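Why run this: before we spend reagent on co-expression, it is cheaper to look at a predicted model of the complex and decide which construct boundaries make sense. The entries below are exactly what would go into the expression plan.
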Amino acid sequence: MVLKRKNLFNSLLFSVFLLLLFSSKIFAEDGYRLWLRYDRVADENKLNEYKKNIKAIHFPGDSPVLKAAREEFLNGIDGLLGMRVGFTEKITENGILVVGTPESSKIVGSLKFSNGLKKIGEEGYIIHNVDIKGKKCILISANTDVGILYGVFHFLKLIQTNKSIDDLNISESPKVEYRLLNHWDNLDRTSERGYAGFSIWDWHKLPDYISSRYKDYARANASIGINGTAVTNVNAKALVLTPAYLEKVSALADVFRPYGIRVYLTARFSAPIEIGGLKAADPLDPEVRKWWENKVEEIYKYIPDFGGFLVKANSEGQPGPQNYGRSHADGANLLAGALAPHGGIVMWRAFVYNYDKDVDRAEEGYNEFVPLDGKFRDNVLIQAKNGPIDFQPREPFHPLFGAMKKNPVMVEFQITQEYLGQATHLVYLATLYKECLEFDTYAKGEGSTVAKVLDGSLFGYNNTGFAGVSNIGTDRNWTGHHFGQANWYAFGRLAWNHELTAEEIAEEWIKMTFSNDKEVVETLKEIMMASREITVSYMTPLGLHHIMAEHHHYGPGPWVAVSGRPDWTSVYYHRADSNGIGFDRTKTGSNALSQYYPEVGEKFSDPKKCPDEYLLWFHHLPWDYKMKSGKTLWEELSYKYYKGADSVKWMIDQWSSLSGKIDEERFKHVSTFLKIQAKEAIWWRNACILYFQTFSKKPIPQEHEKPSGTLEYYKSLKFPYAPGIKPSW
Amino acid sequence: MVLKRKNLFNSLLFSVFLLLLFSSKIFAEDGYRLWLRYDRVADENKLNEYKKNIKAIHFPGDSPVLKAAREEFLNGIDGLLGMRVGFTEKITENGILVVGTPESSKIVGSLKFSNGLKKIGEEGYIIHNVDIKGKKCILISANTDVGILYGVFHFLKLIQTNKSIDDLNISESPKVEYRLLNHWDNLDRTSERGYAGFSIWDWHKLPDYISSRYKDYARANASIGINGTAVTNVNAKALVLTPAYLEKVSALADVFRPYGIRVYLTARFSAPIEIGGLKAADPLDPEVRKWWENKVEEIYKYIPDFGGFLVKANSEGQPGPQNYGRSHADGANLLAGALAPHGGIVMWRAFVYNYDKDVDRAEEGYNEFVPLDGKFRDNVLIQAKNGPIDFQPREPFHPLFGAMKKNPVMVEFQITQEYLGQATHLVYLATLYKECLEFDTYAKGEGSTVAKVLDGSLFGYNNTGFAGVSNIGTDRNWTGHHFGQANWYAFGRLAWNHELTAEEIAEEWIKMTFSNDKEVVETLKEIMMASREITVSYMTPLGLHHIMAEHHHYGPGPWVAVSGRPDWTSVYYHRADSNGIGFDRTKTGSNALSQYYPEVGEKFSDPKKCPDEYLLWFHHLPWDYKMKSGKTLWEELSYKYYKGADSVKWMIDQWSSLSGKIDEERFKHVSTFLKIQAKEAIWWRNACILYFQTFSKKPIPQEHEKPSGTLEYYKSLKFPYAPGIKPSW
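The model came back. Tokens follow.
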């Protein structure tokens, strides 16, 4: 009996010890951990199943990437299963996890891969249940160390999302090669269009002080397959190319490298003048070429795996080759030539437009670049925004997708919500991204989706890429809004595999970030899936676009009529008058529609066939135009604005129903932000309806409540310190 | 036996339960919790003693302040002792903690206070071991709820610092009435001279979103007795006085109120023009007066306990009464008149100087304000920096202290380390503050210390105050450097009680922030106590001052000879030439020394008697001047610079000796910053020695290593994005 008591005592003491051990894993729910939370699996059956299947681990290898992968694995299992897994050199029992490349592990090297590692390329991985020496094992394998890292993250996700791990037959590889975040971060730590505080790059203290955020940033990106980051603003300063800053960038690259992430920089086209002391930056000038060659060589001394340059040239005041009468191809090839020997690439942005009263701004990117197709060097990608204007809540796809057949076009999505409520609106953007990816360009007949252009399968592009403009800042939860994390996550997942549905991505993100509870998952998925359409409704329904306030883009500004340039106003885009509203982009108007393949043109050219979502993007229609719904255009517009604002209340109700199922800290935070969203949705609705009413001269349909403020009130609102713009702007 | 086993089992289960309960209290050691860490008492004997003495608590009362105090108490005891204390209405056993004012608690109301609550004023408190109804109790009492709050923080500190609680006879009240932080924070969230990230005030999301930081900020301040905060930059924008911003300020005030903290704003003198539409802001214009009266009334509608205005006028480009030919008294009285009916005050800064080639900048504050003594309204305080120039590593005290006899002068200390290594140097500033406070002004004969001027005892001031320019920012640990927290802490403690020694304050801060381990306490105290003198040595030894780089003030710049104004250069202050170095402020020079009382003058006027610390502040001396040490001035100067830089290595050794006794996260963070400090100390040393050598023409004494860089190299260093300045400067 005494003995038994002692045993009992010891076993309980051991429990206490375990609790002490793991209590250090308990964190404040401030969102810092993103989707990599690794909290104990709540489902006891699942927990036991996992423990049964993970008895020990065989995971040799000493490369920095493998070390990072192993550390992640151990921390993940420690948190998720509450146990330290032992290492084994030999397969002596069931339940051993075997992780490695044929090079890093002799055991893996000795296996025969029936369906081969060959198919999965340099970044792919497989996760299989296999028999090794008669023992049931789980194999995570890849051709490269970074493949192993991705495989480890995938395996941890299986547990985080409570998936079964006894019938695994996973084979993954990315559909696109360059998967980058673009940080529009300035060297003074302001972040252009950033709404989550300030830049996480503490340039001043680099390279000496390495914030712990840098590694967590790399982990988060690696977990979703992002393999590159352009750390500086496209509105660039040449200073970042000087030794003092290259040393800092190099320190960041050192942190990112074990996570398979390369650093890219934005290159200011006039850098040879500003930091090189040259008189000009003409791309055809041999002295300029030499300067860039030397500069690039210098960069590679600091960062041996430097990724390349992201360039905004001859756009919104940035210098470029046209300053010297040269083309974008001349400019891009200058930099690409310098980078080519080192394996670097140029991402040359297609976001260029100069005001010309005879040309629709929507047409300018196409006009500039299509004639240059085939003239860019092999290591150049043309980076086009998803739509032809500028990251609006809804745009049709950019006509460059499908039009550039020789030189690859990559897409630039905006993750930061410049035009979608900034930090405080819950808007899940995967549906927006998917809408673009699934558009059919008809470039090679039906099925020529934007996605197929981007992944290179349509035209056989030699390089492929996705860029996402980051929503990351110094806010504790990284993205300001807890749900902003979902957009970072979704971008990464789609860059890896654009065939995933928005719903699938939402589901795994919710499970990892909040809970596997069915009600939580279903409710949040419903909110997320509806959120972007709701936002479009209270901001820019029926194809309206670019009617936000000036400069800071915070809130509505349909009345903006005078600006630095006509194509920076709102009236340029909505063209409301007593006759009607909308931008005629058919033959009777700007004819921008003609930039698309005829099949696309057919879908949109007739207002009767044109989907409501794009109606006012392509057509100017009278206020009493009869909509498909039977309502007049004015009634439908009003309905959309009211419906959108009302739907935010629905979102609040849905969220509130989860009280008690979400930790208090995040529950309260999101609740507060939803209230702000509801308030601002009404602000958008009232301001736009009252403004457009001055043209329609029609009453707001009776079923809708009257706006509380006057148009003058809404016009009077000023926000001189709204975030995301530099104070000096 | 079965029963016993069950008992054992239950008691162990209960331990497990407790551990689960408290495990949620375990945090990452990122410094966010400041000195309010409340981790379990490590000393088992102490822990048991505390538990024995705290059996239950009697703590009634429902005011917001009492609720905040009770919440703090419960969280503190929960963490420190690992137990939830039960409440009791009656005194039925020993070990009851009785907390309340005579109003909030009937039990307290029934007590007879032999040494009285009368003596401790509105913010004081007592903590006594008392017998109540024959039971041994601990009493925390005060006249007001905020006194209780302060008492609770003091009681928790006793436990945090492992003090005995069985012989308590504490009676505390602040020596100074207004104890404020000044935030030089802009509305765009940049922070002038801020080195810990950006402003913690998220103006854009206020008043809707209340960051959890605001409450933690209030808790930290209340714990050290700070009772006011001026939330906006002294280089002010009138916009903060408009309704949209007052609503935001009001939301902050609501968070701070339960912690006894009032909000103050900076008032831009030209606000009547900028936001009031008036043509001028002449303080004698009745229309202007009316405007301020109305504005102040409006402010009090938003914030009923609004504290008042902090004003920088006619200083460094800020508008002020002199724009209209009026005096500082006219200006201050204008605002004071508007505030008086509401109980608000004006803190009018004495930091004014206009370049005049015949006047030493050190004299200007005195010249401006002494003639106005007695002309300010009762609710005005003149806020003077500790020294006559500008927060230099070492300055003599400001001659206004002792010279203003009728209108009170309050002190402005800088907590943010603008001139003391910014975020990355470990410099404990309590020794600097104490040096100022202990200076003898001789205003009323020997013993007329600055402290006695400030606490009102010397001249019977009706108002007294301390202001500290905040070092708080968005960095996770609040102050960038973990040891920056000590300066925030020390400022508060000295504002409460200037008689505390720097050492006492360091000791309690170390124990609360790091550990009660003797070696940790002694070693850190030694580092901290030495740190400021070390910094003076490698930056500005022997009374040198204002020789830093321009604008950002980061690093050395003794060569700065051309700037916006001569008194913004370095050469204006060090006056080095082939004959010698130093600023002659005696009769043969600017005679600024004559602004002090004669006894002070005597101490400094003869270079042979003048302490080395102030030698070059008051004297210009030849390079081969014989110092008290026997060395020449040049040798002594070199010695100081080398000694200072070497001493940082000593700090590193000391810190390193604590490896294993400090949590890894903070240990590594501080180690990194110490390495930066060592590097920058050598930078300061080399740059200054090489520069001054161009005048002294003497070799660097043989025992010192040769500087690694050239003077040209050091002069060439540029830091366009150094923090703490607005990008547009």
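The longest helix of chain A spans residues 664-696. Residues 111 and 206 of chain A are 45 Å apart (CA to CA). Bring this page to Monday's planning discussion.
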